[in-house]
Design brief:
The structure holds two protein chains of two kinds. Chain A is mainly alpha-helical. Chain A has one domain (about 5-465). Chain A has 21 helices and two strands. A two-stranded antiparallel ribbon of chain A has the order 1-2. The termini of chain A are far apart. Chain B has helices spanning about 1-25, 40-60, 75-80, 95-105, 135-145, 160-175, 185-195, 205-210, 260-275, 275-285, 295-315; strands spanning about 30-35, 65, 90-95, 115-130, 150-155, 180, 200-205, 215-220, 245-255, 290. In chain B, strands 1, 2, 3, 4, 5, 6, 7, 8, 9 and 10 form a ten-stranded mixed beta sheet that branches. In chain B, helix 2 (about 40-60) crosses helix 9 (about 260-275) and helix 4 (about 95-105) crosses helix 11. The longest helix of chain B has 25 residues, at about 295-315. The chains are: A mainly alpha, B alpha/beta. Chains A and B meet through helix 3, helix 14 and helix 19 of A and helix 2, helix 3, strand 6 and helix 7 of B.
Chain lengths: ~500, ~325
Amino acid sequence: MSFIDLLMLGFGEAMTLQNLSFCLLGALLGTLIGVLPGIGPTATIAVLLPITFFLPPLAGIIMLAGIYYGAQYGGTTTAVLVNLPGEASSVVTTLDGYQMAQQGRAGAALAVAALGSFFAGTVATFAIAVAGPTLSSFALSFGPAEYVSLMVFGLLAATILASGTVLKAIGMILIGLLLGMVGTDQSTGQDRLTFGAIELFDGIDFIVIAIGLFGFSEIIANLERSGSEGVTLAPISRLWPTRDDFRRSWAAVLRGTGVGTFLGLLPGGGATLASFSAYSFEKKMSKRPQDFGTGVVEGVAAPEAANNAAAQSSFIPLLTLGIPSNNMMAMMLSAFMIHGITPGPTVLANQPEIFWGLVASMWIGNALLVIINLPMIGLWVKLLTVPYRLLYPAILLFCCIGVYSMNNRIFDVMLAAGFGLVGYVFRKAKCEPGPLLLGFVLGPLLESNLRRTLLIEQGDPSIFVERPISLTMLIATVVLLGLMIFPAFRKSRQEAFQEEEG
Amino acid sequence: MKAFTALPLAAALSAGMASAALADWPTDRPIEMIVAFAPGGGTDIMLRTLAPFLEAELGTQFPVLNRPGASGEIAYTALSQARPDGHTVSSLNTPGFLTMRIDRKLRFDPAEICPIARIVEDPGTFIVQPDSEFQSLADVVAFAKENPGAVSVATTGMGTDEHLAMLQLEQAAGIDLTAVPFGGANEAKTALLGGHVTMIGLNVGEYATSDQDSFRALAQFSEERSTLAPDLPTAKELGYDVIMSSERGLAARCDVPEEIRTRLSQAVDAAIADPEFQGKAKQQGIPLSYQSGADWSAAMPARLERYTQIFQLIKQEQ
């Protein structure tokens, strides 16, 4: 069958009334849990998994997939409106999205996010359809050595995340790396920095840090104001993005889509890493990087496109190789297996209606999400007029429920509260939490892959320059480092010369 | 003085409550099922699939509560702090339950936790790429003898099933392998497919439900061949003394009345015997292997002894 025939087969499967309704149900559920901080798609799908026993295989899988990418849309809403990332992957959206909301441009931020996500979802879905098997073999060539080089590059790029001084950004990255070390060491089984608390044996959860540093500290900071006004400082001017917004964001969406599609493929990557990387990349590409963090529309468009693209492309290793690239995909694997389907090359050949039906439903689901989300923007923005003495206690409550429900323990809530206080101190010290979170995400990946590489190579580091992908990224790192150092170097040299002359 | 007089009264009250609870059990309240792993893991899905059958068997509800972390210690600690009224059970996994006491101080006393029933026994296997030069375990051993340390084995961390199996093989064959820890079975699979490691350890259940064309299994580490892989030889048949399997089941506090524990054990036995449950287990690649709590307990000391010896080997290497 030709590509067009297969795609038509897929749409034929996905467009049946039953599959269409389960797609809609999944997308709606996903949006809802995306809005609620802490309650993530993985736990939701785990709870719903037994229900899919009673559905036909494709309908069940379509619904669960809808929850996953729906959550990527929903997570944006609270990130923009109240500086509270609904999902881990929308943490970086708070940086500029919330600033836009403060300037009365929440509607524009949400609309750009929804449209950018839709575009990214469409591209990534077609990437699955057209190049799935090719892309997955590329992902397989990423071994521990390649990861090390990619992470080194990522850590350097993390300094770009902050809009303040580079020194503070580096300090925050180091704190992030330190936090990433908490927990049981994979190679030796020793516990590190746990202070004897068994709750810390598996490390600190990303959500705990994110909700603490962003959500709780935002609420503490707002206690400085009186309680009667609404959240927004500026009046809400218009809901729809301006022509200028569109002009500035289309390239950001394109780049975000590319970064997201690529990082979604890699094991352990996924939507969170993608959104951070897309933001850093966008800031590096921008002609006015100093404006990032003050409410630029590109700072919303790029990460939102990236997290949605990554959410779609992380299906590629699962569907083509049968290997899930993250926890969420592991859940999807269980969903397939409950129905006796083992994803992999044989499914592509023997049950094309499952693969193509799912791919087609993803595109339909993304379209449905835009239709659901765009009209709701007006409603969401009205939330901002609620006085925050009413709104914030409610948010606090949802945060606590979300954090608690991750592992069913109060320890995590206390830990998040602690990070809230720390985040308030950071805020006062003008240290931005973005680089900290990226250090926290990248650090463990860097460490474990470095150790793996050296174990496999029995201590010989030459592999890093012998493998082409790794070498390319190391060269890129050196170039980036040079770009960062030399302008400053030249400037200080000029100053030194001037002093000599004077 | 007041406190002294109140004590016997409180004791009498709680004794009365315990017997009342026993009379009504299990229909008076739901039975909470603590799962020591995050939603979506093998143990979680197995128990969530089983719960409705247990509910039908005992006429009460079995809500699932995930208490993941510290390879089960958090869940076992929660179980040991629950009231011993038969309304709290927990998942129980070996080798984790047995090995965690070897080298760390625990927050609970393992002697206070009694197995109710073993549900699954899933032997370990070693897997290589389908086009690998290694056709058998003997090939790997021969190569490793020539090239000490050159064979890399992906594990899911120190002291895990795969790691313990690898150490046993090293000892049984007199070879030197290199353990490379990964974040989970799926990361390890990816590394194998990409050709970054020589061999990975997987459970037969994981192997049987994977795409069979992508992997080649070399041996399974059980006493007898698993029903899921009847054609795969055991390491013992091949002449290597490697015994490693993960067992999953349920446990309760030992001071839960014995009648209740027996009843729970029987309910698990009946639920597992249900053809509908067996069909679902087969689809998910769950190798069912019921054992009563007493039998399972009786088998544990020998296993613990074996694991303790292996851990001493690790200590010597370090």
